[in-house]
Amino acid sequence: MNKKTKIGIIICDRYRNCAGGKCFRALKNREGAFDIYKNDEEVELVGYTNCGGCPGGNIEYAPEEMKNNGAEVIHLATGFVVGYPPCPYIDDFKNVIREKFNMEVVVGTHPIPQKYSDIHGKIGTWKSDAWQEKIKPTMADEKTRIDYN
Ligand code: SF4
What's the pTM? Predict the structure, then answer.
């Protein structure tokens, strides 16, 4: 029998009114950072919230609530890497979620939309190896990025 994985999604507060359309679509299609679940029979989303606004105070609490619902993995949504500027606290969030809550963390949800990739390419946001690592799960191919514009 295939594995069932429960996950939580935390979005950047600047997109606080987002209805989650791209994340839910990508989860269903196992695209972007969700392609790691391709071989799983089922992935259940057990929590969805925002970081609480800079500097992300909700990260101290929200993962625990998601863990109480069975979440094993927290996804920091793609908005963390595509915003202008991207979130400067991603590494801190990854560390605290792993160390305080003993949960896995994945940077990203849906594929990066091409329009964001174009701008960040022009201004050089993601040039460093550290940023290349952060965008790797959601970079996808150009056709997919255009589909998520
Ligand atoms: S930039 Fe980071 S800390 Fe600020 S609102 Fe977005 S995710 Fe939260």
Answer: 0.96
